[in-house]
Fold this sequence. Notes:
The protein contains three helices and two strands. It is mainly α. It has a two-stranded antiparallel ribbon with strand order 1-2. Strand 1 (96-102) and strand 2 (105-111) form a beta hairpin.
Amino acid sequence: xxxxxxxxxxxxxxxxxxxxxxxxxxxxxxxxxxxxxxxxxxxxxxxxxxxxxxxxxxxxxxxxxxxxxxxxxxxxxxxxxxxxxxxxxxxxxxxxxxxxxxxxxxxxxxxxxxxxxxxxxxxxxxxxxxxxxxxxxxxxxxxxxxxxxxxxxxxxxxxxxxxxxxxxxxxxxxxxxxxxxxxxxxxxxxxxxxxxxxxxxxxxxxxxxxxx
Length: 212
């Protein structure tokens, strides 16, 4: 005759069943907290992923967290602000221009600053002389671009003349200023196209006014 199964409601101890991992009698098999406890309370081992991966902000065991690196240092050979030619700190940022016009071909040259007083004066004299010599041989150059370039360099010369004497960087020298524009023979080549343009303008005026 077989023994009847024990009554789980009698209060008698229940022998272990065939499933060793089963929850004992009187215990919630679903792991819910008892009555009166906070169901949203943080469980022990917070900061750990139940699936075996470290939670964000927590390094994995055996893998130390990498330190936060500071901003990189500036390059030791980075160019300090100063004159492009000699590195002097007494500079102004104003471009120097030159123009070349031959028939229908035109070229525009621009050197951007900053420059010191001596380097700018050297560049202005060189670029202005080039413009006076080669900037008149195109109709548009004669009427528009060459006069504009000469006026621009005049303003540049006035701006750079207000700077103090430069102090070049160690191991660097400013440009040689050279003779002024009026002491350079190539600057007087401009007389030829200017005389021709004056002759053309006078003849047009005489024809229009009927004084010829």
